[in-house]
Write a structure and sequence with these properties.
The complex is a heterotetramer, with one copy of chain A (about 325 residues), two copies of chain B (about 325 residues) and one copy of chain C (about 525 residues). Chain A is about 40% helix and about 20% strand. Chain A is of the alpha/beta class and about 325 residues long. In chain A, helix 1 packs parallel to helix 9, helix 4 crosses helix 5 and helix 6 packs across helix 7. Chain A starts with 9 loop residues before the first strand and ends in a 7-residue tail after the last helix. Chain B has a single domain, classed as Orthogonal Bundle (ABC transporter involved in vitamin B12 uptake, BtuC). Helices cover about 75% and strands about 5% of the residues of chain B. Chain B has a two-stranded antiparallel sheet. In chain B, strands 2-3 form a two-stranded antiparallel sheet. Chain C is of the alpha/beta class and about 525 residues long. Chain C folds into three domains: about 230 residues, P-loop containing nucleotide triphosphate hydrolases (Rossmann fold); about 170 residues, P-loop containing nucleotide triphosphate hydrolases (Rossmann fold, 3-Layer(aba) Sandwich), CATH 3.40.50.300; about 70 residues, no CATH class. Helix content of chain C is about 30%, strand content about 25%. Chain C has a six-stranded mixed β-sheet, with helices on both faces. Chain C has a six-stranded mixed β-sheet with strand order 18-19-20-15-21-22, with helices on both faces. Chain C has a four-stranded antiparallel β-sheet with strand order 2-1-4-5, covered by helices on one side. In chain C, helix 6 links the parallel strand 9 and strand 10. The relative contact order of chain C is 0.11. The chains are: A alpha/beta (about 325), B mainly alpha (about 325), C alpha/beta (about 525). Chains in contact: A-B, A-D, B-C, B-D, C-D. Chains B and D meet through helix 5, helix 11 and helix 13 of B and helix 5, helix 11 and helix 13 of D. The structure holds adenosine-5'-triphosphate (2 copies) and magnesium ion (MG) (2 copies). One magnesium ion binds next to helix 1 of chain C.
Chain lengths: ~325, ~325, ~525, ~325
């Protein structure tokens, strides 16, 4: 299967890495590809350099549309504009407002972060200490989510530009954010960081995992430390481990995006554009696929729906 | 032995210092974790030590960890294999990988660096491909299996401290390896050919088989390690699981007194070397040093360790000559 | 004697114990063995001689099961055997002492002696008994060191003794020695001869390879001569004499061997005062060297000759002491400095220190000269490089198809000539030679001696360390004898006798240096 | 030369195949990109080739790329340094790193693998630390500076194809390197000591200085490469920028005929080797092969290349032996 030689549009969906999050999105992409009878390819770059290289390759190959999750929006403008000049470019999951991209499909990581903060408040109404875990803090989505959590817990105003560098604790009158730990996507490290936090802070109140794989690792650590009843866990994204934890009542709740719909909507819009139909564009170029809070009430239904979406077996 | 002593002292110093700054460091819970991670990484280190002793190198360990760690849950959950079958498959594949490396190195005379570098790329790719990049995990089942990695055992007579199961696995492997290396003819063969392969061959030693064996051991321990890591972490991201672990394993072996020129190595040293790396990571958190400095500190400690070792060695030789001089003069 | 030869009573006395028939062996670029024949009879010592590259070692490696012949058969007691592995050869009772050292320096002496044949049950070693056994063997070869000593800490000569002990441990009834004495000096050599006679007494048959015809004359019951991979002659005990052997080997007569042209010696060019070498920190060494003279440096293995020469050329740093060249105080922190002063060293081991084996003859010859002939401070002067190699190749009669032949494919003699050629191209004023004729055939030896004489006549000062008594006495104007790191004494030409030298070398009647 | 020819053929085959499947592959725009990335990676490859020729290895390249790539924008944007000052700093630091490696290897006799492995860890840590793990970039300014990496130049006479500026930088460096390696005595010194350091030293060659030089060259080119990568991508993640680049560079050098045993290397070969790697990545996209297979394919191609090379060599030797045998017989 190759080439934009036929009249069938060929569309590319470029991720910002190879996290499992994107596997769900891929399902959406493929589904939409079948539905709209377009040819789709999901590209998973290793890092910024690789993303640029691969986008250039796509442009060279002459695709009819690209939906990209920008690794570093502030500095990728020129690349994005170059792409926008030669094909239909939309952003998904991570936006680059100041570029020439046509529209953005996704949610607001900062608001999602604040939702996460609200979950922490629910879990720990009388306040306490909080430790945040994330893969890499320099990624925009990570930055915004974390800031959202912090601002919510410190009852600050909405301000996407604010940034508290990690290192020293942030004290509010009820909640104290002790620190933020990064694991560079090393799952083993993610778990041992959780363990170390547990042994370092015997009175740790709540642990927040901001990347999909963090919460399950945290849960593991807390289980093994036998502190399930003492330490609250708040999650992000929809790893099975996380949802299981919610069902079992070990994890208070999680904030989920909807990667599947990122895939579907991106392809739908790109197909329209490729076929010259601009009616598919959302108003003010932002198709908001809002994040949702998942707690014990709605976890069953959500998980069912998720399983339906991603039922087919791994792409071997 | 001297070298091992040196690194042991280093280990004690680091631990004492951290403990003095942060009593929590000495909590049973933390020590148990340190022991657990040391055991998991230590298994990899012991394996690669054998290849290093032959004068080779194995860069594929991390990818093998990723591959075998991905295969196990994949087979169990997606293909519904039985536990023995799935574990068997992981180990058989690791074995095959080791054989492949060994054959390419001994029969075609390729350089281990090149062979295993390609291995690093290929096995990672395979792992990502067969899993479709999807994170693999055991969910909440298989807890009895996961006990192998996460379980803890209280030994009679020792209060308040439980030994993680991986520690016993490491212990078994380490004892086996130490026996093999120091008391059997095969260990001696490895040491001999690591220093002077021709001499070994001329002495009638089946050098090719011994080298092959070393690569098999390395790959097998990596495969086993991969399984344990997967069980411990309970979710495996095929694209990143085990990245750079080969470097940790090699670094531990070097810290522990293996010479990359071949012919030298101590199992105890490797374990202590691993322990240092783990304790350092742990200490960095406990002394709330910015985690961005983690790599830098580990790197610094390794290089300083190696440098000190070298300087001490030289100084000793110098002293000896001078003493000898004085002695005979008088 | 026959009674004692219990190991081999099976077969009758007049048929050969071991026979090689029409064996051929090819290597890329050479036909090492070209239908060679050889017989070894019971309880005899067969000497195999021949020029460098004649195929001696190759044949022995085949007999030891290390390499397989391309054609031909090997018969033991008249029945053909397959020597496809070292074990097979050892089972057949054949053991080989290699020409090159083959020890694992990171292991103990005992470990090396029993390498591949450890005392063991189910793979577990009996360390004790091996050490005990090793100790006995060391005593036999006259090396009084603990079997636990690391081989790394031994000198070349000491390691050679370990090799011999290793071969004895096999208890073979056919023992092959490929130039066992090339790195031994008189003293150890005599010890070895003693061992050899013991072995013969116990019924062992021996194949002995050497370029030292004196030894062959002394030991051999029979001599087989190889040339270009063929056996070209067989000498019975009574036929063995120097000239016949030479003629058979080289195919021509070699007349006056150590032929010195008399000439006056010039002024002092090199003077060393109170030099202390790292390996013998207790000894101060003083010596002077005059232009146009050839000075021999004799001593037992480990006497410190190599160390001294290394220090004199800046390869090693002296712990103290001073050097002056032409009355000028100098200090060599790197061989480069001594080369600039016209002092050049032909090192003890060609393959590791003398040549870049993987480079061709031309590149090897030009290596030290590049610096001097460079264009614009950095460019290689191709013309000079080419000319140098052509002149040197025919001045030294280096046998090679082309100047672009890799050094590793040349025979020992020709390799040594390249090392010499490197320096001759730079016009040395002082030439230091360490074992210059080790492992080199008679023809090449003669040429090297002639060269030394020629250089001396042209006013070059030559200091050469040698363990071969003959050549020391034959070539030297005077001889410095070292004993355990100090200069035990000096002998002028007229007083040169083996006895005198040995006395000083063994420290029997030591006279202080300075 | 033969080896270079072999890899050149391989390159042509891959390109021809991809082009036949996807005409777009041959579009000027794509070839320009391939050329640009080849140039950027090629610079690293040439640098490391010098270390490999001395028989050493440099694993720190990737981290140096990250460090110098992070320093430049950091100094320009956060500290408001002038362009020359910032570039100067990056290069000076790279230089210092090279010197450090060289000194540790030559003076203390440490193994290059260990030294540069620690380098890999330390410089990465430093890069993350000084930037506080914050992504660095030039935003939309410094376009004239970024021209160095992103600019394209049309050569008179060549229609419709513009040469990326990095290509000219690579060209300059490659010519310099080839000249140095093949025509100067110093190049000869490197080749000699790479094969037999002791013999080289006995011949009066200042081996230590030459080896030091090799490490400096490697670090400097890595630093320069880091700057160009930063300018090209305009976004540097201190924790990931340049990860694994050392492996690409080494792989390219090996593909290009460098022997890790030292003493062999061809600049042209290194560039062709790099080109292969880049074209492969490119082809994988063009043939819409799942990107998860990228690593696997690259690894396979390298190992197959090396194996073929080895087999061809042996076969040639065998043929020669037999021929001569016949010759000598007759
Ligand atoms: N491994 C090898 N590869 C290629 N050629 C070889 C090899 N070993 C020996 N040769 C060649 O075979 C020929 C015979 O070598 P051999 O070592 O048997 O000679 P020799 O009689 O032992 O010489 P010497 O007296 O110097 O030891 C020589 O031309 C040598 O260059
Ligand atoms: N590699 C080494 N390691 C340790 N000691 C050594 C080494 N080489 C030589 N020695 C010691 O240095 C002393 C001098 O050795 P050296 O080789 O210079 O003696 P030599 O007279 O040249 O003997 P040879 O005949 O072996 O050249 C000896 O006592 C020896 O034990
Ligand atoms: Mg020989
Ligand atoms: Mg000597």
């Amino acid at each position: 299967n190759s080439g934009s030689t036929s009249s069938i549009p060929s569309l590319a969906f470029v991720t910002n890495g190879d996290a499992s999050f994107w596997v769900i999105a891929e399902k959406g992409v493929n589904a939409a590809g079948k539905e709209y009878n377009v040819q789709t390819q999901v590209i998973k770059p290793a890092d910024g350099a690789d993303q640029k290289q691969k986008v250039e390759d796509l442009l060279a190959r002459g695709v009819d549309g690209i939906a990209i999750s920008c690794i570093d929006p502030d500095n990728q403008t020129s690349l994005l504009n170059e792409a926008a000049a030669t094909t239909n470019l939309i952003t998904q999951d991570s936006d680059a407002p100041q570029s020439d991209r046509i529209c953005y499909v996704g949610m607001d990581n900062y608001e999602a972060g604040r939702m996460c903060g609200e979950l922490v408040k629910e879990a720990m109404p009388d306040g306490g200490t909080v430790m945040i875990f994330v893969g890499r803090i320099e990624q925009l989505n990570a930055k915004l989510r974390r800031q959202g959590v912090i601002d919510e817990l410190l009852d600050r105003s909405m301000d996407r530009e604010r940034y508290d560098p990690p290192g020293e604790p942030l004290k509010g009158e009820k909640y104290t954010i002790l620190d933020t730990r990064t694991d560079q996507f090393d799952f083993g490290r993610a778990k041992s960081l959780a363990e170390e936090a547990l042994s370092l802070y015997p009175d740790l109140g709540c642990m927040v995992g901001l990347f999909a794989y963090n919460p399950p690792k945290i849960l593991e650590a807390v289980k093994e430390a036998k502190r399930l009843n003492k330490v609250k866990i708040v999650a992000f994204d929809e790893e099975d481990g996380t949802l299981q934890g919610i069902q079992d009542g070990h994890i208070h709740g999680t904030v989920v995006q909807n990667p599947y719909r990122y895939g579907v909507e991106s392809i739908r819009i790109l197909t329209g554009l490729a076929r010259g139909d601009r009616s598919v564009l959302p108003e003010d170029d932002f198709l908001n696929i809002p994040a949702r809070k998942i707690t014990q009430e709605n976890v069953e239904s959500f998980w069912e729906e998720l399983k339906k979406l991603t039922s087919d077996s791994p792409a071997t | 032995m001297k070298k091992v002593l040196g690194i042991f002292i280093l280990l004690v110093v680091v631990m004492a210092f951290t403990a003095s700054m942060q009593p929590q460091f000495m909590s049973a819970y933390n020590l148990q974790n340190v022991l657990k991670w040391t055991s998991l990484y230590g298994i990899l280190g012991i394996g690669v030590a054998f290849v290093i002793i032959t004068g080779g190198i194995d860069l594929s360990i991390g990818s093998v960890v990723g591959l075998s760690g991905a295969i196990l849950p994949l087979m169990l959950t997606s293909y519904g294999w039985s536990i023995p079958a799935a574990i068997g498959l992981s180990l058989v594949i690791s074995l095959a990988i080791g054989l492949l490396h060994g054959v390419l190195v001994t029969q075609l005379g390729l350089q281990s660096f090149v062979v295993t570098l390609c291995g690093l790329l290929v096995y990672r790719g395979v792992a990502r491909w067969i899993t479709g990049d999807a994170t693999q995990g055991f969910g909440s089942e298989y807890d009895d299996l996961r006990w192998l990695a996460t379980g803890k055992v209280a030994l009679p007579g020792i209060e308040g401290f439980q030994f993680p199961v991986p520690f016993f696995i490491l212990l078994a492997i380490a004892l086996l390896a130490a026996f093999f290396l120091n008391l059997t003819i095969y260990g001696r063969y490895l040491l001999a050919l690591g220093r002077n392969e021709q001499a070994a061959r001329y002495s009638g030693i089946p050098t090719h088989w011994m080298i092959l064996l070393a690569y098999v051991i390395s790959a097998l321990t990596a495969g086993l390690g991969g399984i344990l890591f997967a069980l411990e972490i309970n979710s495996v991201q095929p694209s990143s699981q085990g990245n750079f672990y080969e470097l940790y394993a090699i670094a531990a072996a070097v810290l522990g007194g293996c010479s990359l020129r071949g012919g030298e190595g101590s199992i105890l040293g490797v374990i202590l070397g691993t322990a240092i790396l783990i304790v350092l990571k742990n200490a960095i958190i406990f002394l709330s040093i910015p985690s961005s400095l983690e790599f830098a500190i580990i790197g610094l400690v390794i290089i300083l360790g190696v440098i000190t070792d070298e300087i001490v060695k030289r100084w000793a030789t110098y002293r000896r000559t001078v003493k000898q001089a004085k002695l005979l003069k008088s | 004697m026959e009674k004692t030869s219990s190991t081999i009573e099976t077969s009758s006395e007049d048929s050969p114990l071991l026979e090689v028939r029409q064996v051929c062996k090819r290597y890329p670029g050479v036909l090492a063995l070209d239908g060679v024949n050889l017989q070894l009879y019971h309880n005899e010592l067969l000497a195999v001689i021949g020029e460098n590259g004649a195929g001696k070692s190759t044949l022995m490696k085949i007999l030891a099961g290390i390499q397989q012949p391309d054609e031909g058969d090997i018969l033991l007691n008249n029945n053909s055997i397959e020597l496809d592995s070292v074990q097979a050869a050892q089972k057949a009772g054949i053991a080989l002492i290699h020409q090159e050292l083959n020890l694992a320096g990171n292991l103990s002496i005992a470990a090396n002696i029993f390498l591949g044949r450890e005392f063991q049950t189910l793979g577990f070693m009996h360390l004790r008994s091996m050490e005990k056994e090793a100790d006995k063997l060391l005593k036999r070869v006259g090396l009084n060191l603990s079997p636990r000593t690391l081989v790394d800490s031994l000198s070349v000569g000491q390691q050679q003794l370990v090799e011999i002990a290793k071969a004895l441990a096999v208890n073979a009834h056919i023992l092959i020695m490929d130039e066992p004495t090339s790195s031994l000096s008189q003293h150890e050599t005599e010890k070895l001869f003693q061992v050899i006679s013991e072995l013969k007494a116990s019924g062992v048959s021996i194949i002995y390879i050497s370029h030292r015809l004196g030894e062959v004359y002394a030991l051999a019951d029979r001599v087989t001569v190889l040339r270009d991979g063929k056996s070209v002659g067989d000498l019975a005990k009574k036929e063995i004499d120097h000239d016949t052997m030479v003629r058979k080997m080289v195919g021509r007569d070699i007349s006056q061997f150590y032929d010195r042209t008399p000439h006056p010696t010039g002024e002092v060019v090199l003077e060393a005062r109170g030099i202390v070498t790292p390996s013998h920190p207790t000894q101060k060494l003083n010596l002077t060297l005059r232009s146009g003279e050839i000075v021999g440096l004799a001593g037992l293995v480990g006497a410190g000759r190599t160390e001294l020469l290394r220090v004199l050329t800046g390869v090693d740093q002296p712990m103290s002491g001073s050097l002056s060249v032409h009355q000028k105080e100098v200090q060599f922190r790197h061989p480069r400095h001594s080369i600039d002063q016209g002092i050049m060293l032909v090192p003890e081991d060609r393959k590791d220190a003398g040549l870049v084996l993987a480079m061709n003859i031309r590149e090897n010859l030009s290596l030290p000269g590049l610096r001097i002939h460079r264009i614009a401070k950095s460019l290689i002067n191709w013309k000079v490089e080419k000319d140098t190699s052509t002149t040197m190749i025919d001045r030294l009669r280096i046998k090679t198809p082309a100047a672009t032949q890799l050094a590793q494919f040349l025979s020992g003699g020709n390799q040594q000539k390249i090392v010499l050629g490197k320096w001759l191209a730079l016009g040395p004023r002082i030439l230091l030679l360490d074992e210059p004729t080790r492992g080199i055939d008679i023809g090449a030896k003669e040429e090297i001696y002639q060269l030394m004489d020629q250089l001396a006549k042209d006013g070059v000062a030559i200091l050469f360390a040698s363990s071969e008594m003959e050549e020391v006495i034959g070539m030297s104007d005077r001889v410095l004898v070292m004993h355990e790191g100090r200069l035990a004494g000096e002998l002028p030409k007229e007083q040169l006798t083996e006895e005198k030298i040995m006395q000083l070398a063994t420290g029997v009647k030591s006279s202080s240096s300075t």
